[in-house]
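Re: weekly structure request thread

Next one in the queue (192 aa):
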Amino acid sequence: MHGPASPGWLLVAVCAATGAYCLLRMRSSDETQRRAAGDEALMGFGMAVMAVPGTAFTPPAWVWPVYATVFGGVALRALWAARTGSHHLHHLVGAAAMVYMAAAMAASPAAGHGHGGSGVPALTGGLLVYFAAYVLVSGARLLPVAGVPGSAGAVAGGATAGRAVAWGDRPELARACRLSMGIGMLAMLPAF
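Done, posted below.
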């Protein structure tokens, strides 16, 4: 990713930490949680590698077609899994965004990812709108609402009253991971 090095390294750190936490979430006893955590770990680490500032490391040209292929496979898997749950549609959009960014980097690895003087491409703009809406909705879901089943406050209160929820199975932590990756997408997409 081309641009200032400090924000790039901060994005690398946030995405790598999110990916690492998602790897820990894969130890959950819930199979669907494990599968989602694996997809999110791959996305977090993929975003971290893609966000490394170009001044620090410029990968060889063959890396970007490999990226596009890997995340194209992730997108196909998410499309298949979307039959059973709507959250997989978000994984599909995220994987498609990674394919798009990898293709843009493959097309102009040395010249930067900018779009010249023609403004923001329509696909980039559409992805920015999607991820901005996703971040706002995800952030709102993290706000505690006392007494509402399924809210962060209700889960925390219920955990202390009943059996304790393992830290890797806490839904608010999974939402926080998804929120941080959505913010990471918002930070990365303008460069394309």
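Residues 5-191 form one domain. The CA atoms of residues 18 and 177 lie 6 Å apart.
Next request, please.
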